[in-house]
């Protein structure tokens, strides 16, 4: 998920909560890349298991 579209949903669901939006964005900027890395790591592990014939 792209950060912009994610933040747009959060802002739409919580209008007028500027401090919340800022805090949420700071956390999202940290977590979203980690989620992408985790997803890539799972794919790589799955490919490795298949190649080993397990």
Notable features of this structure?
single chain, 54 residues, mainly alpha, 2 helices
How do the SSEs run, as a string of H and E? HH
Count of DSSP strands: 0
| Integer-rounded radius of gyration | 17 Å
Distance between the terminal alpha carbons, to the nearest Å?
32 Å
Q: Which structural class best describes the helix and strand composition? A: mainly alpha
Using the alpha-carbon principal axes, give the shape.
rod-shaped
The main pleated sheet reads as: none
Low-confidence stretches at least 5 residues in length (pLDDT < 50)?
A: none
Q: Give the integer mean of the pLDDT values.
A: 84
Q: Helix amount, in percent?
A: over 70%
Strand fraction equals under 5%
Helical region count? Answer: 2
Structure, described:
With 54 residues, the chain is mostly helical. Helix content is 83%, strand content 0%. It is built from two helices and no strands. It has helices at residues 3-13, 18-51. Helix 1 packs across helix 2 (18-51). The protein is rod-shaped and about 55 Å long. The chain starts with a helix and ends with a helix. The mean pLDDT is 84.
């Amino acid at each position: 998920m792209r950060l912009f579209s994610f933040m747009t949903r959060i802002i739409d669901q919580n209008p007028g909560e500027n401090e919340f939006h800022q805090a949420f964005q700071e956390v999202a900027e940290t977590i979203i890349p980690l989620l992408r890395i985790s997803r890539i790591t799972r794919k790589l592990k799955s490919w490795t298991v298949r190649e080993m014939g397990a």
